[in-house]
């Protein structure tokens, strides 16, 4: 009889132990709050553009000075002005400047800067990470999900495509003098300064 | 009384096991990879093993055969055999989390290579290719090459892997802006060359009038090319892959493949092994995630690249 009672008690203890470790309780309000906390890349991109990217563009190096540095001391240029979230060869640069439009095609406008450098500004293929990464403000670990980070780049590009470019594209013509600010990419291992394409964030026809 | 003793022993046994696991970490690194049926992952695993050995560690490569249950067995083995770190290429972004947590609970750091697990805290660090950005570049090149018009096919990788969707979303983040490009079929071939060929054969039956195929990796791209060649359509259909595998690099030189995106498995594998070494030596402040840049390879810059990387 005594043995039986001990056996029952032990069995009960095992059942309680397993049940205790199998079930947990959370406040419903906490679960709902966690579910409601969905990242909004469009809202993030809007705030980033207005509060961080445009101020960074205002403080960006002048195109002629930056290109001179990249020609003469590329290692210094990459170190002081290049940014990227990834390990690798691609680095992004913020830039601003002035120039005269020399030609226009379906993908770009081409210009000569006041320092006689030839550049092109993208008007069709506004894609990629240049505007997200060039200021060096955002880091990978700001986001728990990689897709949120990717979506921020896509949403910033979308704002440029829908808000920055249409008024510019509808008016710009050969011979116009413009002010521009934006970002471009360079490959450190295969440096090519003759084909720089700027993804714009601010464009003004003077 | 005998039964009670056995019962008590059964209850206490798991705790005894846990104790012995945490105290027995040796200077060994386990390399657990999703599959060794794809040369890219063989290169990843062997590079990680070589780097770990060069740092003075004993290593063993475990092949999960794209099966999370087998992967779980490998983690159990690695934990019970006293491996001090796991260099890990997960099979399933969600399904592999439990395995990483198991190692974490046993006090063993896990460094993910190339593929991520959907948990910000499970792995010690995740060293990943920036697949999305690589496919944004491929998407731009795709639009320019097709002049933004025509029917195309997308062949996806393993649907449970985040890289599959990062690549697909990167590609579509560009291509979907062009209404002249119409995706007539989207199907998975599990990153497998033979399945890529079978899927392409099947799609060609229903859609013989395609102009391009975007594949989530080079193995599937080569399989798709085989199917197109067998159907006499290889010259009319542009094939794009992803990885930078040897046969795709040769394929670009031969005009079979239009473009691929070069990942750098050597960088990922060596970084993972270096991090594990640093962990053994006491470092604990690892970035939760590191992205490794991906570079587009086309006929224009093919001479800068070799399989799995750049020419030195």
Give an overview of the whole structure:
The complex is a heterodimer of chains A (206) and B (312). With 206 residues, chain A is α+β, with helices and mostly antiparallel strands. Chain A is 47% helix and 23% strand. Chain A contains seven helices and six strands. Chain A has a five-stranded mixed beta barrel. Chain A is elongated. Chain B has 312 residues and is an alpha/beta fold. In chain B, the strands form four sheets. A six-stranded parallel β-sheet of chain B has the order 2-1-3-4-5-11, sandwiched between helices. A four-stranded parallel β-sheet of chain B has the order 7-6-8-9, sandwiched between helices. In chain B, helix 2 packs parallel to helix 10, helix 3 packs parallel to helix 4 and helix 5 runs parallel beside helix 6. About 3% of the residues of chain B have low confidence. The chains are: A alpha+beta (206), B alpha/beta (312). The interface between A and B is medium-sized, with 30 and 40 residues. Strand 1 of chain A pairs parallel with strand 11 of chain B.
């Amino acid at each position: 009889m005594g043995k039986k009672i001990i056996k029952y008690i032990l069995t009960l203890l095992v059942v309680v132990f397993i049940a205790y470790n199998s079930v947990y309780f959370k406040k419903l309000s906490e679960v709902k709050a966690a579910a409601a906390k969905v990242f909004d890349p469009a809202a993030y991109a809007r705030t980033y553009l207005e509060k961080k990217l445009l101020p960074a563009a205002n403080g960006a190096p002048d195109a002629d000075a930056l290109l001179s540095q990249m020609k003469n001391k590329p290692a210094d240029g990459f170190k002081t002005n290049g940014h990227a979230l990834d390990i690798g060869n691609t680095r992004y640069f913020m830039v601003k400047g002035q120039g005269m439009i020399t030609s226009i095609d379906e993908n770009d406008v081409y210009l000569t800067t006041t320092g006689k450098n030839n550049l092109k500004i993208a008007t069709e293929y506004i894609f990629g990470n240049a505007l997200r990464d060039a200021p060096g403000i955002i880091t990978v670990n700001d986001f728990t999900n990689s897709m949120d980070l990717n979506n921020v780049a896509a949403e910033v590009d979308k704002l440029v495509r829908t808000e920055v470019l249409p008024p510019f594209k509808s008016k710009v013509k050969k011979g116009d003098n413009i002010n521009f600010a934006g970002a471009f990419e360079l490959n450190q291992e295969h440096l090519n300064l003759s084909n720089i394409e700027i993804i714009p964030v601010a464009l003004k026809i003077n | 009384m005998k039964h009670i003793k056995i019962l008590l022993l059964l209850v206490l046994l798991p705790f005894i096991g846990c104790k012995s696991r945490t105290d027995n970490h040796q200077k060994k690194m386990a390399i657990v990879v999703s599959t060794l049926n794809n040369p890219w992952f063989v290169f990843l695993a062997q590079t990680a093993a070589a780097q770990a050995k060069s740092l003075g560690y004993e290593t063993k490569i475990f092949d999960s055969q794209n099966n999370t249950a087998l992967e779980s067995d490998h983690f159990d083995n690695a934990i019970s055999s006293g491996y001090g770190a796991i260099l890990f290429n997960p099979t399933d972004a969600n399904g592999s989390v439990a395995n990483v947590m198991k190692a974490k609970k046993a006090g063993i750091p896990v460094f993910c290579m190339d593929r991520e697990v959907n948990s910000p805290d499970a792995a010690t660090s995740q060293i990943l290719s920036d697949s999305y950005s690589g496919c944004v570049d491929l998407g731009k090149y795709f639009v320019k090459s097709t002049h933004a018009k025509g029917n195309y096919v997308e062949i996806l990788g393993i649907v449970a892997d985040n890289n599959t969707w990062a690549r697909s979303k990167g590609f579509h983040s560009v291509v979907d802006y062009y209404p002249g490009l119409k995706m007539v079929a989207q199907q998975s071939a599990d990153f497998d060359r033979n399945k890529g060929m079978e899927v392409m054969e099947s799609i060609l039956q229903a859609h013989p009038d395609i102009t391009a195929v975007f594949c989530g990796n080079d193995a599937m791209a080569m399989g798709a090319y085989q199917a197109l060649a067998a159907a006499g359509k290889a010259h009319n259909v542009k094939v794009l892959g992803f990885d930078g595998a040897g046969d795709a690099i040769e394929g670009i030189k031969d005009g079979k493949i239009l473009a691929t995106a070069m990942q750098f498995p050597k960088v990922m594998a060596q970084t993972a092994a270096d991090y594990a070494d640093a962990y053994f030596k006491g470092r604990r402040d690892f970035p939760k995630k590191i992205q490794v840049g991906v570079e587009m390879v086309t006929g224009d810059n093919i001479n800068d690249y070799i399989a799995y990387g750049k020419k030195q």
